[in-house]
User: Fold these one by one.
Assistant:
Number 1:
Amino acid sequence: MNHKELTGEIARRLGYSDKDAAQLIGSMIAIMGEQLQEGKSLSFTDFGTFKVEKKLEHITVNPLTKQRFLVPPQLILTFKPADALKGMSENTISAHE
């Protein structure tokens, strides 16, 4: 599902226009981005948790040149799915096998 399809589905389910649904999604994404930039986590019941974590500096090797170099610390976005979401995906996978 892409942004346009999600917008259409939200509009259909809530009785919104496509424009209002797109505005709702845009506002939601903006709020989520602001919270993550402030270092806060986002937790959604039965869906999962988004969190910004600091990855420590480490040494890695270029596989082509075998040269070692230091990767500086960086912030990464992580997502941990809730058990309910994991269960949904497992049921979907087993249904298609």
Number 2:
Amino acid sequence: MSGAEQVVERTEAPAAPEEHHGGLARGRRVVLAVVGGAALMAVGGLLATTLVKSPAQVAAETGPPAQGVLTADVERRVLAQTVVMRGTVVADQSVAVSPQGVRSGEGAGAALVTKLPLKAGDPVTAGRLIAEVSGRPVFTLHGAQPMYRDLKPGSTGDDVAQLQQALRELGHGTGGDAKGVFGAGTKAALTAHYRAIGYAPLPAVADGGAALKAAREAVRSATWAVEDASSPTGAVGTPEETGSGRKGGATADPGATASPGAGRELARARQALGEARAALAAAEAADGPMLPTAEAVFLSSLPARVSSVGARAGSPVSGPVLTLSGGELVVEAYLKDDKRQLLRAGMTVVISSEVSGTDVRGTVAAVATERSAAQPAGPGPQQDPGQNPKGGGNGGTGAGGGADLGYRLVVRADQPLPAGFAGQDVRLTIESAATDGEALVVPITAVSAGADGRTVVTAVSAEGTQRRIEVRTGTSGDGFVAVTPAQAGALGAGTKVVIGVAPRETRGKSK
């Protein structure tokens, strides 16, 4: 081989290693690609196995899980059954003043309101003039018994005794009158009160004094008749001419005998005089002032206040002229038949005011035995908050005609309610039943009745074992019931009892 050829071969020889190196690089890339693809396929397969499930697996995972039990602890406490309702705070006494049948003594006519000196919210004290109807006064007096009849001289009874006490409280003494007897002292006291408010009382006998005058004339005539019958027998002439004063010195014959009928005439004259005097006493007793039913309003608690005014001066009396509220604040509610059977007077109550956030304890004072009806709305343009809108209290109810309200329930607070409670709608929580002291208490759902009629609870031990314990049930309320184990000591406070079942995670499933 020539030198030139050798040079050429040496210069071309190095090209072979470069070509081999390029092939190795390509090979490595292919291998890496294959390995990467396999890895991706493996990861994809793994993901697919977690997302794709067989129908059997899906059914197994969506089926109902195994069940466990719910338990509650047995408690030892006083259990009370409660009734919750709404009520309205109103005055204890609400009186609608409707002065019908007012007599002015000056002829009959329609009753008209002639004066209304008060407005809604004004205070009212004993003896206060609250209205004038047809010129006659209407005033307040202290007393619990409402007026139901006219009180006149000679009247007797508890209502007369109440009037006497009311007049004495105003400073008008009733003298020596016996309690409950409308006598001369009561006449004077009543007359003094009418004069104090600027009026004259109506006479009990509206004849202008004719009966009394006639009785006095009868006594005078009977007295003269007795004197005439008592004159000496045989006297001649007038009384001025008989006896030692007789003119001419004529005297009765001392030997003269009395006529046969003289003694009888004298006895009859004396009897007539006695009867005339008795009639005069009766006329004098009947004469004097009277207290008409329409002119006095008795309130058991004073001072009171005007709750509403339902008329104006000049309007006819066709309903309540005004409404008065007095006494302490109470809560009034109305019951349906189901709740009325659960409640009675004396039960404990919690009065809750959402406005002030205050709870006050009280007692059920009364549960009505007859249903109440709402009164039709009146024309009263003025109304004071806190009045009884149903018209409850002495003299405050009228003939029905409104919607049925139910049975009226009255709750009285243990301590006087604050004045700010007046008119509020409050919540009443009434304990209608309670255990006699502390008792074992369980949720109602813990008690079950077996086929044998026994009532049992199921107790669960710390290890999870269950045992049935026979019990007797007692008072229930608020979802709980008092129980007594049939075997003493078989059940105690803190024991866990089954109250239901609850789903439980299947074993091996992640939580």
Number 3:
Amino acid sequence: METESEPYVRLATLRQLHDVVGELNTARSLADTLQTVADGIVKGLGYELACVNLVQPDGDLVVAAFSGNAAAEALITGRVGARASWERRLSMGETWGELRYIPHTEGWILLEDDVPQWYTEGPDPRFEDEWHPQDRLYAPMYAPGGGRELLGVISVDRPRGGRRPGPWGREALQMYASQAAIAISNARLRANMQRALVRLEREQQALRASEESFRQAFEYAPSGMAIAEMGGDQHGRLLRTNDALCRLLGRSASAIRRYSFSDLVHPEDIGTLLRTSAEGGRAELRLARRDSTYVWVSLRNSVVADTTDGPRFLLTHVEDIEERKRNELQLAHRASHDSLTGLPNSAELRARLSARLCERPGAISVRESAVQAVDKAFGGYEGGGPNGAYDEGGYGGVVPYGQGPGYNGTSGAAYAPVPTSPGSGYEPYEPYEAYEPYERPYDPYADPTGERAFQGDGFDPSSGVAPLDHHVHTVAPGADPDDGSKGLAVLFCDLDGFKSINDRFGHNTGDAVLIEVARRLNTGVRDGDTVARLGGDEFVVLADGLGATDAADLAVRLRNAIIPPIRVDGRAVRVGASFGIGWASCGMTVEEVLKSADQRMYIEKRSRKTVHRRAG
């Protein structure tokens, strides 16, 4: 029971409690705070031994601090007791407010559990309130805030007076446990904050290192790099460029920042740029240099997105592909042009002609041959074979032009033979069929079976409906040269006397003659016309928008341009030319168009030969 000096004891205990609680707030780390809690019990509350058991994340309790006995501290500090064993202890014995007292008469059953413990042997108590060595007193510590979250348990042993604590001593221990819980919570909060600060500092250092690495990679990249804004009023504006892009475009960094890629891109490539900017990915297009020239580049875009705001920037890698594009164009030019003369070759001629033709279902009801349909409109021939077809074996049934119906006897009439000067050479003619047919180029309107899903005039074979026609049909001009009708003229040119030059002076001279003839033909046509070398000494001219008289006049001009002597290695050689004029018309194939012009050239050559023989 309490002595008569209890008021003094209370005052002294309160003073000591105030001092040790004040020391709790001076500890800097969690470990220091726990040790201060244990030391404060020994120093200020009058117990010889004190132990602080702290709840771990897994729920078990570990001996985090011990005070009062160095040997016991070394033995049990760091050892763990199961949460279930602790909950069993806190449910036994007597309840003293928030404290739990287990007398030795009940606590003997706890000697063999897994909770770390230290006790000393001693005599049995002589008084009712005397402390027994196996008595146990626990002060649970709960997290502040009114909850019942267990932070840990303070266990004390051997009060200095040798007696169980009275009401005031119990109250003091309970108050101390409450303050210790606050101090431990604050220490944990400080520890978490310090760890967060350390982690934040490391992240900031990593971010600074990453930004520096990006800056160096961006600035010193061998190819162009740019950052453009996405969204808002300044969408697409260039925010940052590296030196390589500035050198590529011949502009300073400050000048480029006044533009967006849409301001610099070639007008024909703006659609490609917009699709690439919206979707990311890559594209090949042309950008303007400061000197107003354009350079081919490959753009590779990456959208830099914010997790909350969405896309914010566009990181663009700009690679100079001018040389590669130049090589590609050279390869494409070599594939589509004659290596000797530089003119479009046979494949390119057929591709260009095919682009102007369509099948036009129903335009020619009976496919006697589209060639015959056009020729009959001009009275050009009467077929010698069945159904008026050509006699392919040397054109045996062909009537020389000028003797068939519709011929008006003048050189200005459609398909009229081109006048030749007396004495021009004539050599055996190799039929046009000797050349390999050219496969029709890719048709975007064709289905996989090879049939056109929509024909040239928009006719849908499956429905029989002709929707809006996007194809401009090619038709031959009328038979009357004065009716003003125009068409796509196909002039088939075969050189006269070339074989003898080739045989007499060699292939080098022959090549020089072909090159000069190609140059003269190119000089004699308009910019939009096509002069192609079909093979050997045969050339074809495509001239759109001509009437029958215009085409005949063009043939005369071109032949007159070829006739003048050609000087090769100090000698002058001369070749003539025979022209046949055909007309391209939808409903005809490329081969039929070329065959028609080839026939006209053959008729002219044959009729001129007959005239020469009569003159002789």
